[in-house]
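Design a sequence for this backbone.
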């Protein structure tokens, strides 16, 4: 069976101030062309179909158009909700839409109920594991821990239990939206850390032939059988070196996996340039970036006059301007920035307590701070899921 694996469409999201809806529509066209030209048997979309719980109308219309066109090709599609989606909103009408061959999996209770598709070698069971927010689903899965690994492991236990009831030789594909250990993140994924632990080991997916992952925006293979497709478009300058693509996965009669990486259309290249303003305006080596979306980091010790206006004369698509003045190591601004670099929200809060009180928080106070940050994240997710 030939499966096209994609994820993280983030319909409705902009890139800085650039409306990406046209580029997203271009990707949908490319997806449909690929399905036709490469004789795809099934499409899987591993979450974050939308960028937010209540997407703009234009994004909903684009999604509706994509569903109609996929159904028109007669190629089954399996989709799950991600941490950016409202699972309840995305799942509205799932039963009816499923009759057209578009299978939406947004309910954690259905993790062990597969979509069964058939090819010349028998059945392939597709299990959809929507994004599992630990605080909201731990009762459903009967786990005492509130971590991602616990709930995802419990969901996979249901998958393996169902698969054991299937005829011998039944092949299996799992869709999941999670942060798997070994994956490379970027700046454009929303933090899913709760309780201090977000990553889950790849071994959680043992027992299935292929795990089609979503959440991380860089296309990457954790193992031959556990892969991220990445987002088809860039959503931060940290993705400047990404090669945006999808996985074309072939499952043979025995469940062996062969994967080919297929490039997605590039609306405009990304470039990150750095130097003083005069250097950036004069350097001939930067000519290749003049039509790119640009993030410029200025190292001038004193902020120059009208830097954006001057930069856009040479780089008209400059979208981000960062100031990183080169200063002496003992400069107070430098030392403060270094203290914050790489520190979590909780660590910064603990530093603030130390600064105000003269002594850092004790273990009980650290636990209270962690509970507060976890509660904020869980409340945000609950509001989006119910939104």
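Sequence:
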């Amino acid at each position: 069976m030939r499966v096209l694996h994609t994820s993280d469409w983030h319909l409705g999201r902009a890139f800085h101030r650039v409306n990406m809806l046209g580029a997203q529509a271009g990707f949908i066209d490319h997806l449909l062309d690929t399905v036709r030209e490469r004789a795809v048997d099934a499409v899987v979309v591993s979450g974050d179909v939308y960028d937010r719980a209540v997407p703009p109308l234009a994004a909903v219309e684009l999604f509706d158009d994509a569903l109609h066109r996929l159904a028109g090709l007669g190629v089954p599609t399996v989709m799950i909700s991600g941490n950016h989606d409202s699972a309840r909103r995305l799942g509205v009408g799932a039963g009816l839409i499923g009759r057209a061959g578009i299978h939406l999996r947004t309910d954690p209770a259905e993790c062990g109920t597969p979509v069964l598709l058939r090819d010349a070698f028998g059945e392939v069971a597709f299990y959809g594991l929507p994004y599992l927010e630990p605080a909201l689903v731990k009762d459903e899965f009967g786990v005492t821990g509130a971590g991602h690994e616990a709930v995802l492991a419990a969901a996979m236990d249901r998958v393996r239990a169902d698969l054991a009831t299937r005829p011998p030789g039944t092949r299996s594909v799992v869709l999941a939206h999670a942060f798997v250990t070994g994956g490379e993140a970027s700046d454009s994924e929303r933090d899913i850390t709760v309780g201090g632990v977000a990553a889950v080991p790849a071994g959680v997916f043992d027992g299935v032939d292929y795990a089609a992952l979503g959440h991380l925006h860089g296309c990457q293979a954790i193992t031959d059988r556990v892969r991220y497709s990445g987002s088809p478009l860039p959503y931060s300058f940290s993705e400047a070196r990404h090669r945006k693509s999808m996985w074309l996965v072939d499952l043979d009669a025995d469940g062996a996996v062969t994967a080919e990486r297929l490039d997605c259309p590039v609306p405009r290249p990304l470039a990150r340039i750095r130097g003083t303003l005069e250097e950036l305006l004069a350097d001939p080596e930067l000519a290749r970036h003049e039509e790119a979306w640009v993030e410029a980091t200025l190292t001038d010790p004193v902020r120059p006059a009208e830097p954006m206006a001057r930069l856009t004369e040479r780089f008209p698509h400059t979208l981000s301007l960062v100031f990183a003045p080169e200063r002496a190591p003992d400069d107070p601004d430098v030392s403060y920035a270094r203290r914050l670099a790489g520190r979590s929200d909780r660590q910064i809060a603990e530093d603030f307590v130390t600064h105000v009180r003269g002594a850092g928080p004790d273990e009980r106070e650290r636990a209270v701070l962690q509970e507060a940050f976890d509660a904020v994240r869980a409340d945000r997710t609950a509001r989006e899921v119910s939104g």
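The chain is about 35% helix and 25% strand.
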